[in-house]
Every structure is written in C-alpha cells, then in structure tokens.
C-alpha cells in the first residue's frame, strides 16, 4: 500500500482515471453494439444513423488513448463495410 503522501495521491488519481476510462470504454462498446444490432435487423437507415453516432465516439476514444488508432480505424472500416453490403 502507498505510504508517502505523494504515493497516496497517485493511487487516488489512478483510481479516478481507471473508473473514467472504464466508463468511456463501455460507452464506445455500447455505440458499436447499436450499429451491429441495426445491421443484424437489416435496417440500413437505422444502421447508417447509428454508425454516424458511433464514429465520433470511436475517434474521441482513440484520440484520448483509450483505444489504439488502428483499432478505431478497424472498427469503423468493418462497420461501414457491413452497412455498404446491405444494399
């Protein structure tokens, strides 16, 4: 356990950041799941709308280092490919 005041503060800060990161990561996953659900229901308009809502969230998570930039690009590319294949 942290003994010095500095170490105790760092432990507090780490916990706050961990919880914030977990919440943001969960939000990104939820938005991705909404797109997948719309794709599976074969509703192209809903899928497109959900995709447009998800992209800024994915980009923001990548910019903040929550997920890797390549992972964000991969998610966007695959979701978009599924939506385009619905036509």
TrEMBL record:
Binds directly to 16S ribosomal RNA. Belongs to the bacterial ribosomal protein bS20 family. GO terms for molecular function: small ribosomal subunit rRNA binding; structural constituent of ribosome. Residues 1-25 are annotated as: Disordered. One of its GO terms (biological process) is translation. Keywords: Ribonucleoprotein, Ribosomal protein, RNA-binding, rRNA-binding. This is Small ribosomal subunit protein bS20. GO terms for cellular component: cytosol; small ribosomal subunit. It comes from Chromatium okenii. The keyword rRNA-binding applies. Pfam families: Ribosomal_S20p.
